[in-house]
Amino acid sequence: MKKEIKKIKKKRVILNQIKSSFPAKSINESLSRMIAASLVCQLDPTIDELADIKTAVSEAVTNCIVHGYGNNYKSISSVNKSGGEINLYACYYDDNSIKIIIKDKGKGIEDVKKAMQPLYTTDESGERSGMGFSIMQSFMDKIRVISNPGKGTTVIFEKKISRPV
Ligand SMILES: Nc1ncnc2c1ncn2[C@@H]1O[C@H](COP(=O)(O)OP(=O)(O)O)[C@@H](O)[C@H]1O
Ligand SMILES: [Mg+2]
After folding, report:
1. Burial of 96 (0-12, 13-18, 19+ CB in 10 A)
2. Is 123 in the pocket of ligand 1 (CB under 6 A)?
3. Is residue 30 domain-resident?
4. Would you give the distance in Å from CA 3 to the centre of its chain?
5. pTM of the model
6. Total domain count, the chain
7. Is 10 inside any structural domain?
8. What does the pLDDT read at residue 39?
9. Nearest-atom index, ligand 1, CA of 122
10. Is residue 154 part of a domain?
11. Which range of residues forms the domain containing residue 100?
């Protein structure tokens, strides 16, 4: 029965996508936002939808830079050899939904459930609020976080864009 329902449910088709990678430098937070926004704009989102997506991407990329790689970016050659790189993938489907994947190969998260709780932060500088994941959750329809300590973290977002009336 489950198989039959699956068959009836139409599979989404990817209409466009972009794959990018860049060094984990704070200047690339805005770059990543613009990359995702440029693709999503092809769906003619509302200003609010676009703002939500840009904010969620910023939060996830900032986490890669600050937590994943510990703000430790050194040089392009070190990125090429041993990490310090962030991957951003974005696509949209024929049902007007988008998917964004942000990945680092940094230190990873021991307890993802705990890390996603509001106000939880491991930052000791007092600069972080511990609200990054909560913001991502409230601005996107779906968020999935996969992390392996010592290996890195992947954040996957999904959101449906409303069609213009
Ligand atoms: N990419 C990542 N790599 C390693 N740890 C992460 C990553 N993203 C989040 N974390 C962990 O999850 C915690 C919560 O993240 P977040 O909700 O964005 O709050 P904040 O960034 O303000 O600490 C972080 O303090 C950090 O310990
Ligand atoms: Mg954060």
Report:
1. middle
2. yes
3. yes
4. 31
5. 0.92
6. 1
7. no
8. 98
9. 25
10. yes
11. 15-160
